[in-house]
């Protein structure tokens, strides 16, 4: 027994020391990234494939602690998303610690559609403020993003601007409210210019006749994305988070 006591004392000391120097891995609280936006971000029906919103490709970049809930919808502006009750549903889902990503602009430009049209530095900016403030009241954090660039090259091969003041207005709201801003317009513009007119064509819904069952007559669409385009734009968003040093980057795969 007298030999056992020193052994037990040494073992106890070792265990106590181990407890002090070895930290157990902390459990990471799961969170949801809630997306609100338009068709460039939205989940598509099977009858629309191969079209894919970049929001559909986002979850694959994160580890298992992050889920993505995509509330973005085709044809919606920052105004109609509220007016049709979609924001109410997305807001109700937000929990403390979640992240809201807001990307509108394409359909806010529809001046002939009064249910959707907004002035960049007027109602559009007010709607972004509302989204941010109401999400924060629920304990969520907010990221503002500008719209992705349309693939519109002119005859000289120059990519044209199609979004006017909306990206700058979104950035101004983010700065005003102290929110992180991902300039998807600028990032996607840079990507398209680097690729050029020919190589960038396949990112968008430019389809040959009979190439896909859902589009027997083919399609020419330089706004909406094919899977490779959706993944490329989701990567641009993640790159934006990395440049910001956003906490979400700690959960990347």
UniProtKB/TrEMBL annotation:
One term of GO molecular function = hydrolase activity, acting on ester bonds
- Tell me which positions the record assigns to the signal sequence: 1-25
Superkingdom classification of source: Bacteria
One Pfam family hit: Lipase_GDSL_2
Identify the CDD domains for this entry.
Rhamnogalacturan_acetylesterase_like
SGNH hydrolase-type esterase domain residues: 35-231
Q: Which InterPro entries did the record assign?
A: RhgT-like, SGNH_hydro, SGNH_hydro_sf
- Keyword line: Hydrolase, Signal
Q: Which family does it belong to?
A: Belongs to the 'GDSL' lipolytic enzyme family.
Query: This chain belongs to which protein, by name?
Result: Rhamnogalacturonan acetylesterase
């Amino acid at each position: 027994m007298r030999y056992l006591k020193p052994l037990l004392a040494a073992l106890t000391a070792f265990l106590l020391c181990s407890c002090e120097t070895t930290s157990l891995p902390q459990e990471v609280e799961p969170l949801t990234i809630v997306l609100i936006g338009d068709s460039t971000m939205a989940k598509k029906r099977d009858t629309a494939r191969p079209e894919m919103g970049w929001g559909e490709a986002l979850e694959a970049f994160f580890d298992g602690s992050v889920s993505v809930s995509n509330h973005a919808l085709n044809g919606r502006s920052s105004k109609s998303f509220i007016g049709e009750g979609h924001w109410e549903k997305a807001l109700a889902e937000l929990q403390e610690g979640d992240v809201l990503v807001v990307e509108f602009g394409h359909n806010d430009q529809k001046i002939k559609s009064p249910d959707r049209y907004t002035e960049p530095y007027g109602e559009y900016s007010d709607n972004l403020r509302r989204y941010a403030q109401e999400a924060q009241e629920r304990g969520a954090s907010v990221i503002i993003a500008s719209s992705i660039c349309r693939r519109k090259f002119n005859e000289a091969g120059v990519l044209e601007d199609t979004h006017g003041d909306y990206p700058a207005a979104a950035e101004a709201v983010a700065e005003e409210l102290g929110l992180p801003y991902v300039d998807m317009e600028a990032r996607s513009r840079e990507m398209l210019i680097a690729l050029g007119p020919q190589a960038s064509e396949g990112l968008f819904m430019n389809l040959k006749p009979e190439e896909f069952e859902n589009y027997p007559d083919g399609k020419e669409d330089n706004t909406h994305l094919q899977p490779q385009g959706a993944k490329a734009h989701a990567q641009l968003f993640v790159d934006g988070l990395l440049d910001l040093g956003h906490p979400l980057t700690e959960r990347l795969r």
